[in-house]
Amino acid sequence: MELYIDSANIEQIAQVMPLGILQGVTTNPTLIAKEKRDFQTLIRNIAKLVDGKIWCQVTSTEAESMVNEALEINSWAKNIVIKLPMGMEGLKAASILSRKGVETNMTLVYSVPQAVLAAKAGVSYVSPYVGRVDDTGWDGMSLIKEIVDVFQSLQVKTKVIAASIRGPQQVIDALRTGVHAVTMPYQVLLSMVRNPMTDIGLEQFMTDWNNANM
Ligand code: E4P
């Protein structure tokens, strides 16, 4: 089971990496843009906080430039996973990069056929966007379950990482489908840690302890 925080925010990453439960950080152009910092500088600073994988999406639109951009990003830190947008150009870039031994992820995956072609192109991971599928009225969890089942029946090595997660229960539901990994926003991770009953119980323990030891 691999868990990632879906963030490019240094403060959030610095707070959660010491938990020792995350395999790294996933980012995308929107998350990077939110930080209003130079892409390379931001990734290098994130790499100082993260022992695990750092997922970075290319912004080029043609396969050749995607490959060149990927090789440049790959040089910024160790354990980079290059995110490629699903499509003809992304598939071409994935085939080239996988032959070069570059770890890649096919992102913006919304169907089993897309996932199968991405796996055939040699990507290490595919990212079905659970939350965004749900937003359209379809069932995101069914999508990832189907991809997991097809990959298992085809004995595909490519891993499935559930993305676009909106809450703690979606993390659990996704893991129940057999996905290899889940990436979640900072607030979702905090919601998984915290529970009001835990806080109430701890407060009572400390009150009883302090009263007895006054
Ligand atoms: C992975 O990093 C995806 O880009 C991300 O989970 C998308 O999440 P969103 O649908 O909340 O933008």
TrEMBL record:
Major localization listed first in the record, in broad terms: cytoplasm
Pfam families: TAL_FSA
Keyword Heme in record: no
Protein name: Fructose-6-phosphate aldolase
Annotated compartments: Cytoplasm
Native organism: Polycladomyces zharkentensis
Top-level lineage group: Bacteria
Gene3D superfamilies according to UniProt: Aldolase class I (3.20.20.70)
Keywords: Cytoplasm, Schiff base
UniProt-listed NCBIfam families: fsa_talC_mipB (TIGR00875)
